């Protein structure tokens, strides 16, 4: 499965966003604030999920802000740290 | 609103990483000493060992009746209760003849989260049931009431990080309403792998000694301990001719109603609690000698507190003592109440340890050095998960 | 200690809402479900009074509930039902206080949090589960969703959780710290609790509760929530009457004092360890009822008895003890519905080590 698709499924399932599907999440849309309306607790939960599914660590929320800009941003973040 | 009658505090017991009793604790604070280290009682598989404020010295044995095996949290509560009762001049016989209530805040003390038991249960084994029995015997308020044969109301407050402050406020109200002659009120909590992992997962812990209100603060360090205040009615205190360390002037409590873990950035709940407490204590903000802030060292918490303190008490010195004790969760508010009373009577507060560099985003900074304070009242405040804000105001004692 | 009861919200094995409770009281029907439990390498079936929180959907959408666990859903459903019953859902809740009493807290979530650390390592422990496992998470969810900004308190004292919470509520109303207090008792079932039950009480679960047989262990686990919307006495006649007295003590020094001819609702719930105290301390001949077989054994059971008491005041009717509650051993347990006639009701609960609470209610 393509990484973007996998990320969307993880977000929907692990954050319990029952009312949306992967098709509802645009690859370049902001994940926090507007759009999906995720908050600080979702952010730290996503950090744990990224660790769990990809073995990639997000050290602090400075890194988190970059990684969670959008699905594309998260995709890049993970790829950078798994091919290195 | 009519001001509340002040409630005398005739005894204090306090133990944490800073010391095994209140005198030892205050000595450490004024010596500017602290030494958080990685936990020794448990390990974890995090990349980094986060420092904690563990009680390393053996605490004094406290129990006349060794029948029940109890959690360390309950042992801490008993140790603090023993020091407090002795300090107040109450022995077991005397307490037995009075209507004595117990109100204690905790987090770990009421959590059935024994990992060894649960692991064994999950694996389909036949785990030993001792951890369950121990948990059932370890409700901190019940443990203290059982130890001293007390028959008044007994309440364990589980309001997360504001529990200790809430317990003192609630205990004082039992005296005022005449339900009790004496109340042992405070908080107790032990370090535990579950809370350690929990706070790390929230990314609000610091992997170095915490720096409350500092520009480079990264988060909290966990701690453990207990503190108990003996509260009693003014009539009883007078009839015993016993000196009192302080009076509980008022208690204010309010909820942000905002978020499960983050405080409301506009500080509305804290301001409401502070206004409620000030309103009931028949004094004015100008009488405030200092404020013992919650000051965990997390970016969000310290931001809110600095904003509120600057708005409501501009120019009045404040500090966080969590740089000396770590965040002892349910015990924090009670430990800080004990420190607040000691400092109010001493007329000085220690440095807000960990604070070096003012944060330009914070409108008010804590004291960087030991500071003389003037004023007849002092405030201790606690902010909790779930958006609870609790404030207690103390008046000076006569001891 | 006095408070007016203006709204009731209740969730139990019998369903949710006052009318459901009333039908259950009239029919006397017991509704535990059978669940499977593994113990000592065999699977047994155990009855549990389990709750369905899906009616919460009438108040809150899926998005609002996405991070809310079963324990908090029980609390939210009880809260919203009480507010709706009091016609206060749309009111301004700025000065409302929230108090939750619980024996064991959100135990399912506590263990789910441990699962995440055990399954994938400490670095994968879930922060969402941790925050929800903290005892006061439910009270936080209630205050956030109702925008209640007064004081907020959670207490945990096993069987004495509800009475100590009631004390705080009456105190806050008297001190004018809040204009209204939404107070509830909440406890949930979890498989670890079921397992412990079987280890402590024997691997053959009781078929049905017989709480009046004091020497028999017949308790069946219940879960649920019972919420009350309380205000000061405003000189009117609230539909559920008043809490008029709260006694908390220990048999070592005190005895529960029931006023005059009050009906007694006994919180005896088939636990042998507390059964002995009811047997010893109930005034001879006092008209008594035991409703625990309708909702099960749970630390906050007293809140359920109080809800039944409040309903009895509203209906001016005292409902019969459900049949087969045990052989009447000299107590005056009424087996038929009768008129309350504006008399008082005292709800009595003992813990297994001799603590007791008696909360009295009346129409005026």
Q: Topology of this structure?
A:
The complex is a heterotrimer of chains A (84), B (399) and C (364).
Chain A: H1 3-14, H2 40-54, H3 61-67, H4 71-83
Chain B: E1 7-16, H1 22-30, H2 72-87, H3 92-96, E2 100-105, H4 115-122, H5 130-136, H6 140-147, E3 154-157, H7 163-176, E4 182-189, H8 193-201, E5 225-232, H9 234-240, E6 246-255, H10 268-280, E7 288-292, H11 299-312, E8 318-319, H12 322-325, H13 332-346, E9 348-349, E10 371-372, E11 377-383, E12 388-396
Helix pairs in contact in B: 2-6, 7-13
Chain C: E1 3-12, E2 15-16, H1 18-27, E3 33-39, E4 42-48, H2 70-85, E5 96-101, H3 107-120, H4 127-133, H5 137-146, E6 152-155, H6 161-174, E7 180-187, H7 191-201, E8 224-231, E9 242-250, E10 263-266, H8 272-281, E11 287-289, H9 301-315, E12 317-318, E13 332-333, E14 338-339, E15 345-350, E16 355-362
Parallel strand pairs in C: 5-6, 5-7, 10-11, 10-15, 11-13
Antiparallel strand pairs in C: 1-2, 1-8, 1-9, 3-4, 7-8, 9-16, 12-14, 15-16
Helix pairs in contact in C: 2-5, 3-4
Write up this protein.
- The complex is a heterotrimer of chains A (84), B (399) and C (364).
- By secondary structure, chain A is mainly alpha-helical.
- Chain A has four helices and no strands.
- Chain A has helices at residues 3-14, 40-54, 61-67, 71-83.
- Chain A is globular and about 30 Å long.
- With 399 residues, chain B is an alpha/beta fold.
- In chain B, the strands form two sheets. Chain B has a ten-stranded mixed sheet with strand order 3-2-4-5-1-6-12-11-7-8, sandwiched between helices. A two-stranded antiparallel ribbon of chain B has the order 9-10.
- In chain B, helix 2 (72-87) packs across helix 6 and helix 7 packs across helix 13 (332-346).
- Chain C is α/β, with parallel strands linked by helices and 364 residues long.
- The mean pLDDT of chain C is 94.
């Amino acid at each position: 499965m393509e990484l973007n698709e996998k990320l969307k499924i993880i977000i929907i399932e692990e954050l319990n966003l029952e009312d949306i599907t992967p098709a509802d999440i645009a690859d370049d849309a902001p994940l926090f604030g507007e759009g999906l309306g995720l908050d600080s607790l979702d952010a730290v939960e996503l950090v744990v999920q990224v660790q769990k599914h990809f073995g990639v660590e997000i050290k602090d929320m400075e890194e988190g802000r970059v990684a969670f800009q959008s699905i594309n941003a998260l995709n890049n973040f993970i790829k950078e740290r798994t091919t290195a | 609103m009519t001001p509340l009658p002040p409630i005398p505090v005739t005894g204090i017991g306090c133990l944490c990483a800073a010391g095994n009793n209140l005198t030892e604790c205050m000595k450490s604070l004024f010596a500017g000493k602290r030494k958080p280290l990685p936990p020794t009682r448990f390990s974890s598989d995090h990349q980094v060992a986060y420092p904690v404020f563990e009680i390393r010295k053996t605490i004094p044995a406290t129990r006349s009746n060794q029948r029940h095996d109890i959690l360390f949290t309950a042992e801490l509560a008993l140790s603090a209760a023993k020091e407090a009762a002795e300090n107040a001049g109450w022995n077991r016989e005397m307490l037995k003849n009075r209507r004595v209530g117990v109100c204690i805040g905790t987090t770990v003390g009421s959590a059935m989260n024994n990992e060894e038991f649960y692991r064994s249960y999950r694996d389909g084994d036949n785990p030993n049931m001792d951890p369950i029995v121990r948990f059932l015997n370890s409700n901190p308020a019940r443990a203290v009431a059982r130890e001293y044969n007390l028959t008044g109301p007994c309440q364990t407050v589980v309001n997360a990080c504001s529990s200790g402050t809430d317990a003192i406020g609630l205990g004082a109200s039992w005296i005022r309403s005449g339900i009790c002659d004496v109340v042992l009120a405070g908080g107790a909590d032990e370090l535990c792998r579950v809370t350690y992992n929990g706070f790390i997962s929230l990314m609000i812990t610091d992997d170095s000694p915490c720096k409350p209100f500092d520009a480079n603060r990264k988060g909290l360090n966990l701690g453990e301990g207990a503190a108990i205040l003996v509260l009693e009615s003014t009539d009883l205190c007078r009839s015993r001719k016993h000196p009192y360390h302080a009076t509980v002037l008022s208690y204010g409590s309010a909820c942000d109603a905002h978020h499960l873990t983050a405080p409301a950035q506009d500080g509305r709940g804290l301001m409401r609690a502070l206004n409620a407490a000030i309103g009931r204590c028949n004094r004015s903000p100008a009488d405030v000698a200092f404020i013992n802030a919650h000051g965990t060292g997390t970016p969000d918490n310290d931001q809110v507190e600095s904003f509120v303190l600057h708005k409501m008490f501009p120019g009045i010195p404040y500090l966080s003592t969590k740089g000396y004790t770590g965040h002892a969760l349910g015990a924090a508010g009670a430990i800080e109440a004990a420190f607040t009373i000691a400092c109010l009577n001493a007329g000085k507060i220690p440095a807000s340890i960990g604070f070096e560099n003012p944060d330009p985003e914070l409108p008010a900074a804590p004291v960087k050095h030991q500071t003389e304070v003037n004023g007849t009242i002092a405030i201790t405040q606690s902010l909790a998960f779930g958006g609870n804000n609790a404030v207690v105001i103390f008046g000076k004692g006569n001891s | 200690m006095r408070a007016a009861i203006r709204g009731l919200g209740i969730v139990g094995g019998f369903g949710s809402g006052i009318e459901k409770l009333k039908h259950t009281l009239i029919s006397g029907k017991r509704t535990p479900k059978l669940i499977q439990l593994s113990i000592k390498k065999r699977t047994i079936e155990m009855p549990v009074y389990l709750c369905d929180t899906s009616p919460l959907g009438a108040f809150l959408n899926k998005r609002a509930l996405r991070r809310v666990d079963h324990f908090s859903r029980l609390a939210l459903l009880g809260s919203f039902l009480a507010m709706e019953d009091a016609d206060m859902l749309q009111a301004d809740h700025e000065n409302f206080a929230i108090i939750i009493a619980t024996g064991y807290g959100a135990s399912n979530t506590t263990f789910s949090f441990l699962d995440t650390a055990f399954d994938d390592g400490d670095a994968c422990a879930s922060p969402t589960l941790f925050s929800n496992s903290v005892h006061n998470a439910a009270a936080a969810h209630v205050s956030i969703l109702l925008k209640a900004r007064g004081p907020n308190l959670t207490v945990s004292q096993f069987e004495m959780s509800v009475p100590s919470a009631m004390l705080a509520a009456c105190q806050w109303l008297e001190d004018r710290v809040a204009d209204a207090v939404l107070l509830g008792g909440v406890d949930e079932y979890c498989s670890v609790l079921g397992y412990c039950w079987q280890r402590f009480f024997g691997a053959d679960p009781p078929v049905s509760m017989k709480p009046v047989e004091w020497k028999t262990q017949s308790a069946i686990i219940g879960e649920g929530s019972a919420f009350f919307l309380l205000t000061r006495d405003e000189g009117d006649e609230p539909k559920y009457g008043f809490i008029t007295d709260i006694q908390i003590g220990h048999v070592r020094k005190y005895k529960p004092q029931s006023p005059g001819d009050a009906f007694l609702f006994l919180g005896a719930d088939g636990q042998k360890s507390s059964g002995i105290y009811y047997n010893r301390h109930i005034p001879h001949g006092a008209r008594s009822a035991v409703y625990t077989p309708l909702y099960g054994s749970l630390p906050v059971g007293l809140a359920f008895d109080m809800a039944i008491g409040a309903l009895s005041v509203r209906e001016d009717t005292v409902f019969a003890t459900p049949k087969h509650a045990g052989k009447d051993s000299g107590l005056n347990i009424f087996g038929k519905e009768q008129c309350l006639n504006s008399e008082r009701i005292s709800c009595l609960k003992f813990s297994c080590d001799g603590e007791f609470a008696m909360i009295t209610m009346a129409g005026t």
